[in-house]
Amino acid sequence: MLVRELNNLIMDYFITDGYPSTAQKFAAEAKIPPKADFKSINERVEIRDSIHRGDLQTAIEKINELNPQVTNHQSQHVHLYPLHLL
After folding, report:
1. What is the pTM of this model?
2. Where would I find the H helices in the chain?
3. Residues contacting residue 19 through CB under 8 Å, at least 6 positions apart
4. Does the structure show a pLDDT above 90 at 40?
5. How confident is the prediction for the chain on average, in pLDDT?
6. To pair with 48 at 20 to 30 A between CA atoms, which of 7, 18, 21, 80?
7. Phi-psi bin for 52: left (phi > 0), alpha (psi -120 to 50), beta?
């Protein structure tokens, strides 16, 4: 039981922090099902990388492609769009 919980915790880290190839290899090695679609992990990594580069327009476009509801929510405008103005 503890090993399965640790494996799931490690898998969550790989997915959340954007290591899709590592998560995929770990899932196969640990014989656990992946908890996310690896394509969506790559898309989130691209969004994060765009934000880190300061390319907020690309990040916003990618967010809109992946999940338009995110940028339609008023609180997200407060966080993303002012950064775009800088």
Report:
1. 0.62
2. 2-16, 20-30, 38-53, 56-66, 68-72, 74-85
3. 41
4. no
5. 81
6. 7
7. alpha
Mean pLDDT, to the nearest integer, of 46-63? Answer: 90
Using CA atoms, how far apart are residues 56 and 78, in angstroms rounded to an integer? 13
Q: How many residues does the chain have?
A: 86
Q: For residues 54 and 29, what is the distance between their CA atoms, to the nearest angstrom?
A: 36
The pLDDT of residue 73 is above 60 = no
Question: Which residues are CB-neighbours of 14 under 8 A, at least 6 positions away?
Answer: 20, 22, 23, 26
**CB contact set of 46 (below 8 Å; sequence gap of 6+):** 62
Give the pair of three-digit tokens for residue 44: 């989130």
CA-to-CA separations, 4 to 27, 41, 43, in angstroms, rounded: 11, 22, 27
Tokens of 46: 């691209």
Structure tokens that stand for 39 in this block:
């394509």
